[in-house]
Specification:
The protein is α+β, with helices and mostly antiparallel strands. The protein has a domain of 65 residues: Ybab, Chain: A (2-Layer Sandwich). The chain contains three helices and three strands, in the order αβββαα. A three-stranded antiparallel β-sheet has the order 1-2-3. A hairpin with a 4-residue loop joins β2 and β3. The longest helix is centred in the C-terminal third of the chain and has 30 residues. The model has no long low-confidence stretch (mean pLDDT 86).
Length: 101
């Protein structure tokens, strides 16, 4: 099916699918790292938002302030998610025509 101007919908769909597959592969391969509390908690996350590792400075456990440690873990995970979202928007922005994102 061709639209006015010669655009072929099937070709457009194939291109869109190829872009989607490329983006999924890039997100699977992407890794971000975020920390909280000056490095007391560090999270490494895949571009698919899957947490790969969580590191906690042993000194944080010795202090016994569980609530503060929990807050730092949440902050580090949220920061990693934010970094992934920014990277995805940037990648999409480079792939799409201006004004579509």
């Amino acid at each position: 099916m061709k639209f006015p101007g010669g655009m072929n919908i099937q070709q457009m769909m194939k291109q869109a699918q190829a872009m989607q597959e490329k983006m999924a592969k890039e997100m699977e391969e992407m890794r971000v790292e975020a920390s909280a509390g000056g490095g007391v908690v560090t999270v490494q996350m895949k571009g698919t938002h899957e947490v790969e590792s969580l590191k906690i400075d042993p000194e944080a456990v010795k202090e016994g302030d569980v609530e503060m440690l929990q807050d730092m873990i949440v902050a580090a995970v949220n920061e990693a998610n934010r970094k992934i979202d920014e990277a995805m928007k940037s990648k999409l922005g480079n792939m799409l025509p201006p004004g579509l994102l």
